[in-house]
Amino acid sequence: RCVLKELESLGKALYGAKLIAQSFQVRNCSHHKDPVSGSACLLSMIEEGNPQHFFIATQDQDLANKVKKKAGVPLLFIIQNTMVLDKPSPKSLAFVQKLQTNQLVPEHQKQSIVQLKEKEGLAKQEGEKRRKRKRAGGPNPLSCLKKKKKTTQEGQEPSAEKKKRRKRKRNRVKAEAVQSVQKDEEE
């Protein structure tokens, strides 16, 4: 109701916005007799952890920043004709994290765990902080490699000396055989 009253007071420039706001369901607020500004009314409706699970849709940055400081209130805004649901605020994420850890282990069990740790001497004391000591490392593994043998002559490797080259043998035909072949040809 406070938002509608504020839109009425702003005049004909926001008549279209007033018609759109009237098309939605109107919630009763505590300022029925003396209306306050729209943002103050919306903030009062989401007090005490947002029990009615309201979403806040606004383009007002001041109101958006105030809503982000409260846990569990989704925030909607418009960017280039598209409705966008804002990511959860850090306050909401912290609230959910706390709620989940409380559900995992009940409070009386946490207290009994602390008492048992103190009894056994396992409780952490703030004065004692252990530091991890650096241990001396071994030698550089590259320095431990065996040295390579040097070559005997520049450009030649010792393996080249061991290689044997095969020589082709020429088969020389005896002079007598050549003469007999020639005689046969002449005849």
Automatic annotation (TrEMBL):
Its main location: nucleus. Keywords: Nucleus, Ribosome biogenesis, rRNA processing. GO terms for cellular component: small-subunit processome. It comes from the Eukaryota. Residues 130-149 form the UTP23 sensor motif region domain. Residues 116-129 have a biased composition (Basic and acidic residues). InterPro entries: Fcf1/UTP23, PIN-like_dom_sf, UTP23_sensor. Residues 106-187 are annotated as: Disordered. The keyword Transport does not apply. Residues 162-172 have a biased composition (Basic residues). The keyword rRNA processing applies. It is found in: Nucleus, Nucleolus. GO terms for biological process: rRNA processing. Belongs to the UTP23/FCF1 family. UTP23 subfamily. Involved in rRNA-processing and ribosome biogenesis. This is UTP23 protein. It comes from Sula dactylatra.
